[in-house]
Write a structure and sequence with these properties.
Layout (H helix, E strand, L loop, with lengths): L10 E4 L10 E4 L11 E2 L13 E7 L10 H11 E10 L3 H10 L15 H5 L4
Parallel strand pairs: 1-2, 1-4, 2-3, 4-5
Length: 129
């Protein structure tokens, strides 16, 4: 496997899906989503192409919840391995407790696919767009 050379300010967008960020190395396990192709294909459990202490920033939006619970600590350790000391790791995860609380307030009204479902169904299943 080829090692990715680290630029001066390496930012990784892990599990990018179709949300490609300019200036970041967009990494995903899937070769394409909605026509968007990541910069690099990689199993996020093992960031082998990236060297220790090479990334200034790691962004993972709605990615951690795709791993089994017992895998998460090892996955995060792997990501920290790649992160430079003092670097920034940004994780955005679904808030399932809040989503279910909102859903239970009005199950019929919050189960749709429109904006009224943003805090419930979209959290559980993703934005239908």
């Amino acid at each position: 496997m080829t090692t990715i050379p680290a630029p001066a300010a390496l930012r990784l967008n892990l599990g990018c899906g179709d949300k490609l960020l300019p200036g970041d190395i967009n990494v995903d396990v899937a070769p394409s989503r909605n026509g968007a192709t990541p910069d690099h294909l990689c199993d996020l459990r093992r960031l082998a192409p990236f060297t220790d202490d090479s990334a200034n920033e790691i962004l993972a939006v709605h990615v951690v919840e795709h791993f089994w619970r017992w895998e998460v600590v090892d996955v995060l350790r792997e990501w920290v391995r790649v992160l430079k000391p003092g670097g920034t790791m940004i994780l955005e995860c679904r808030n399932l407790a809040t989503a279910w609380q909102e859903f239970l307030k009005d199950p019929d009204g919050t189960a749709g696919s429109g904006p009224e479902a943003q805090r419930t169904m979209w959290v559980l299943y993703g934005d239908p767009a």
